[in-house]
Write a structure and sequence with these properties.
mainly alpha; Globin-like; binds protoporphyrin IX containing FE
């Protein structure tokens, strides 16, 4: 039985993503990566992606996470910040333990390919692509 099959309320995937991207779009550093991205669109994409990844219907037609971020300079520190926000959303929406554990594991499986040691490791997906590397805001303070 998949994690999806165990869910009594499958709408929870959407609610977690909605909660999560609200945090992301409010975050002083993480939000800088999303200035050109529609919040409803990414919420929907992520909902479809995770639904398929945990054994539900596969309606996701975007890029795999391994191919969606080559032009973004994402550090381990930023990845950890994102992870913490996701953990908070999972908790706030009362995700069952099996869903939380699987979701975090899926995200973690992309850490190595998404995180980069240097901006020189970024690659444009198309010639018109711009390298996305918003630095940490000078007044950024870790919260929580
Ligand atoms: C700090 C880490 C991350 C940042 C800053 C980030 C940022 C972004 C941004 C800005 C986009 C929109 C790209 C575009 O449409 O051009 C995106 C797309 C996406 N990201 Fe991430 N991401 C991060 C980590 C992850 C992780 C861990 C996953 C694993 C599930 C993931 C999955 C996706 C997916 C599925 C898309 C949609 C791709 C598409 O629509 O083709 N991201 N991400």
């Amino acid at each position: 039985m998949s994690v999806w099959d165990e869910l009594t309320d499958t709408e929870i995937i959407y609610r977690i993503n909605k909660n999560f991207y609200e945090k992301v779009y409010e975050h002083p550093w993480l939000s800088l990566y999303f200035v050109d991205i529609d919040q409803d669109f990414i919420t929907d994409q992520q909902t479809r992606f995770i639904t398929g990844a945990i054994g539900g219907p596969n309606t996701y037609s975007g890029r795999m996470p391994s191919n969606a971020h080559p032009h973004m300079y994402i550090t381990e520190e930023l990845f950890d910040i994102r992870k913490k926000l996701l953990e908070e959303s999972l908790e706030e929406e009362k995700a069952p333990e099996s869903l939380s554990a699987t979701w975090i594991k899926i995200d973690e499986s992309f850490r190595r390919v998404i995180c980069k040691d240097s901006i020189n490791d970024c690659e444009k997906r198309y010639t018109t692509d711009e390298i996305l590397a918003p630095g940490k805001p000078y007044n950024y303070k870790k919260t929580g």
